[in-house]
Write a structure and sequence with these properties.
CATH topology of the largest domain: Pnp Oxidase, Chain A
Strand order of the largest sheet: 1-2-3-6-5-4
Radius of gyration: 21 Å
Order of helices and strands: HEEEHEHEHHHEEHHH
Helix content: 40-55%
CATH class of the largest domain: Mainly Beta
Number of domains: 2
Number of strands: 7
CATH architecture of the largest domain: Roll
Shape: globular
C-alpha cells in the first residue's frame, strides 16, 4: 500500500514538474501594502526554472516590486501550455488545463547573481533551439511561421535578455507549498519529491508523442474547416487519412 502511495506521489510530482518546465509564464500574486483589506495584485509574469525554483522576471513598472518590499509573501500559478487554437477549443468545452500553484517567499536576486541567471537563460535558449532543429520539417515550419501570440518558449525567453525597452527585476521564488490542480481535484505535492522528480519534456519519447499530437490536431482542424458545400468524397478521404494515421501510430 505504501509503495503504491509513493508511486502515485511520484507520478503527480512528475506531472507537476512537466507543467512547470514546459511553460515560461505564470500569474504572480502579491499583497498591496497600502490596503488594510490585503487586496491582491495579480499579473502575468515570465519565469525560468533553475535548481528547482522559479526565477521571476518582473518588469520595473510592475506594482509587484513595491508590494514585495513590504511583504515578501506571494503565490505563483502556472498552467499547462497548449497551442492557441487548442486552448480555445478546450476552454469552449469547459476543460481547464492542469495547473501548479506555489505559495512562498519572493526574494530579490543579488546583483552578483544576476549575470549567472541570465547566462542560464541563454543556455536554455540554445538547448531549445537545438531541440527545435531536430524536429520534423512539418513541425519546424509551423513553429517558424507562428505569430507573436503563438511564439515559442524560446522566443519568449530571448526577449527577457534582448528587450531594450523593458527593464526587469529578477526574483527567486522560494516555495513553502505546492498544489497540483486538474479535473480530478487539488492535491498537495511534497516539495522534496517535486525537487527529486526529473521529467524530460524534450526527451525523444515525449517529444514524439507531442509531435504526433500536433499532427492529429491539425488534421482534426482540417476536417472541420471543410466548407459545407464540400463533396462527401473529400470529407470521406480526410476521415480515411485520419484512420490510417492512427493505425500507423500503433505500429
Amino acid at each position: 500500500m505504501m509503495k503504491g502511495s509513493k508511486a502515485n506521489l511520484s507520478a503527480l510530482a512528475e506531472k507537476c514538474k512537466t507543467v512547470i518546465v514546459s511553460n515560461w509564464q505564470g500569474y504572480l500574486n502579491t499583497v498591496k501594502p497600502e490596503d488594510k483589506a490585503s487586496i491582491i495584485h495579480t499579473s502575468k509574469i515570465k519565469y525560468v526554472m533553475r535548481r528547482g525554483k522559479p526565477y521571476l522576471w518582473v518588469p520595473e513598472s510592475e506594482p509587484h516590486n513595491v508590494n514585495i518590499m513590504f511583504d515578501e509573501r506571494g503565490s505563483f500559478s502556472i498552467a499547462h501550455p497548449y497551442p492557441g487554437p487548442l486552448a480555445a477549443l478546450f476552454k469552449s468545452i469547459g476543460k481547464l488545463p492542469e495547473r501548479v500553484a506555489f505559495t512562498g517567499e519572493i526574494v530579490p536576486v543579488k546583483e552578483k547573481r544576476v549575470d549567472a541567471v541570465k547566462k542560464y537563460v541563454e543556455e536554455a535558449i540554445q538547448s531549445e533551439m537545438k531541440a527545435i532543429s531536430d524536429t520534423p520539417n512539418s513541425v519546424r515550419s509551423i513553429l517558424n511561421s507562428s505569430d507573436q501570440m503563438y511564439a515559442s518558449r524560446c522566443d519568449s525567453l530571448r526577449a527577457l535578455i534582448n528587450d531594450a525597452k523593458e527593464k526587469y527585476v529578477i526574483y527567486k521564488f522560494v516555495p513553502s507549498s505546492c498544489m497540483f490542480i486538474d479535473p480530478n481535484g487539488t492535491k498537495e505535492i511534497d516539495l522534496k519529491v517535486l525537487e527529486l522528480s526529473k521529467p524530460d519534456p524534450l526527451g525523444n519519447e515525449t517529444k514524439d508523442i507531442w509531435f504526433q499530437t500536433i499532427d492529429k490536431v491539425l488534421l482534426f482542424l482540417k476536417l472541420f474547416a471543410l466548407d459545407s458545400k464540400s463533396q462527401g468524397l473529400g470529407r470521406q478521404n480526410l476521415w480515411m487519412e485520419s484512420i490510417r494515421t492512427n493505425q500507423e501510430d500503433e505500429l
